[in-house]
Amino acid sequence: MIFTAYFDESGTHGDTPTIIMSAWLGHAYQWRRVEKKLKPIKEKFDFKVFHFTDWKNRTGEFRGWSEQKCDALAVDLIGILEKHLTQGVTVFLEHSRYMNEYKAPPVPRKMRLDSQYGVCFRACLSHIIRVVERHGNSHKLNVTIENGHRNVNDCNRIFYEFKEFWRENSKDVLGEFKIDRKDSSPPLMFADMLAAAHSKFRELKALNDLKIKELPLSEPPHKSAIAMIELSPTALIEMKVAHEELKR
Prior knowledge:
Layout: E1 2-11, E2 19-27, H1 28-45, H2 52-57, H3 67-84, E3 87-93, H4 95-103, H5 116-134, E4 140-146, H6 152-168, E5 174-180, H7 188-208, E6 225-229, H8 235-247
Parallel strand pairs: 1-4, 3-6, 4-5
Antiparallel strand pairs: 1-2, 2-3
Helix pairs in contact: 1-3, 4-8, 5-6
């Protein structure tokens, strides 16, 4: 079975951004169902590409839309995700943690450090590979990521590092990596929605101390469950330790 994960990010801008990266995972039949369901929604609301920022600010294709129409579109799009995909995954990383825990010395000799964007991609991809593995050993995972971020090519390098590692361990789980746009890869819009929703969730959590239930990875996910990954206090340092161990 061929699985595909579509990745996009949301984050603050400037010199010290917090990056949120999200992805939706589904197998080929699920994605065909999603794209089939998406077509009448596009015709109903008369839009071509969903960009969360345009939808939120009612700019671009959503200029002049009422609040009710914007909300109705979101409800219809979320309805597709709830019924037809395997899992969504999202992770965030503050710039301060990236600098103080990952880029700070000591750095293993000859280790090529990931960008902040790349660290988020590595964490999401690691989780998704484990989800695919739980479905059996004969599956392949392809990845498509939204073009536009200055560090998007860092993800290409990380993907093929993972691919080589798994091949060396007799598990040829990874297939192809592609950088694309939402107009030619429509499922990217769902990753955009999830990244933006996680950003809003974090705002509300900070204001209201919202609590969520954490499910251990060993439990089979509910249909279209969402995994929110929070890096542990030692996770970024452990990435460097793991690099040294792999060299040995």
